[in-house]
Write a structure and sequence with these properties.
Length: 356
Amino acid sequence: MRTDFQTPATCTNIALHNLYPGEIDLVISGPNHGRNSSAAFAMSSGTIGAALAGALSVPIEGPPSQASLHVHNMPSIAVSYGVVTRPVPEGCMEMAADIAVEVCRRLFEDWGWEDAEHKRPVQLYSVNIPLVPEHLAPENRRVCFTTLYRNTYGKLFEETDKITNDVYNPTQHRGPQPERHDGQLRFEFKPSFQKILNPDPKDVPKGTDAWAFQNGYTSVTPLRAAYGEVGAEGSGFGDKSDIGLFWDLLCLVDRVQDVTLEHEDEVEPEREQGQAELSGVGPNTSGLAIDEHGLDDELEEREHASGKVAEDGADAEPARVLDEEVQRHLRQEVEQLDAAEMQRGQLPERTNCNEG
């Protein structure tokens, strides 16, 4: 089989949807000759990527998706062998294969659920088997469910003067020789994995896949095809509701109101008018948002008075929903009030919440 993008994930999707649509009961990726325990390895693993692709390859409704036996879930397992010494001791591969087959069989027969209510089945599993003879022996084999050990990998590349022609080109196996330029910056993949491969045992929490590997156990880690969702309950701000924790995007308006009340004698009448025009702001059923209807009504009345809006039934151009001059005026008023408060040292400098 030839494709323009030959990756493990590509193979999974093509097999499920093009070669054997509706015929596959279980996706097994691997075995990879190298561990994929801990976040640093798992997040960059093509083996786990292929299992993720299986979990995500459930057909959506309607064409062009093909029929599938698994409408809601495609069971997928990533199998990795953790190499500890090289060359791998004799007999390790055969014993590891026996364990892998047994683990996959047991999982397929009793797949498991993400929750106690059995509402969502587990999407995929990552299995890591250490290639250590004494731990692979039938009398010593131990398998345990684990969680993913959270770690980092730091620096991965070193600067080099070496020229390589292995330039990636999706339509060719090898790209053209790059031209040499004085001062051109080049890097090569040269990681230092010592601390990742052999972390201090006291730093590795019990029950994680890295802990299991250190103890010679085969780890079985249930995963979902999504980046880890951190609960919003731990965030330092936001308003709780029955559907989520919402940001208060009206803090600017609240600050302006506080400034207006506290320094009423310093605020000119036209600024108070600008503050009143911001009063049409409030929450809706989907969270905190700006309610433009009150502001629109006020603007429409102004435009009627100035002759910009025709009466009902008259032949005239449609009224503009927002008057740019009024918008600019309101923004200027808010900026002036903020500037005055920052000079007094009572208001921190505002940042753009939409950046990044």
